[in-house]
Amino acid sequence: MKVDLLFGRDFSLWALETIDPECICCVFTLDSKIAALADRFGLEVFTEYINQVVFEPSIIGLSVHYPWIIRPPLLARYQNIYNLHPGYLP
Q: Contact at 8 Å (CB) between 67 and 8?
C-alpha cells in the first residue's frame, strides 16, 4: 500500500529518509530541500498548493508540518489521512 506525503519543515526530511520509497506514491511540499530529496529518491514531487493539483490520491495521506489547509473535497478522496503539526486545533 502506498501513501501520499504532504511535507513541510526539517522534521519531514527525517521522515522522508525513514520511509521506504517503495511505500510512497507522491510528495507534496513547498520546501526546496524536501523536494530535492524526494526527487533524488525518484519520487513524484508536487511543489504546488495541493488543492490545486489534479492527481489521483492514494488510499492514505500523511501530512507532517504541511503549511496549507487541505480542503474537504480533497480530504474526502482519501480513505485515511493523518495530520501531524504543531498548531492548535480549532
A: yes
Tell me the per-residue pLDDT of 46-59, one tens digit each, with 9 for 90 and over. Answer: 999 999 999 999 99
Closest to 50 measured CA to CA, from 32, 29, 34, 33? 29
Contacts of 17 (CB under 8 A, 6+ apart): 37
Q: Is 89 part of a structural domain of the chain?
A: no
Give the model's confidence band at 32: pLDDT under 50 very low, under 70 low, under 90 confident, else very high. very high
| Number of domains, the chain | 1
Give me the domain span that covers residue 25: 3-84
Q: Give pTM, 2 decimals.
A: 0.90
CATH at residue 52: 3.40.50
Give the span between the Cα atoms of 13 and 45, in whole angstroms.
14
Distance CA 58, CA 42 (A): 17
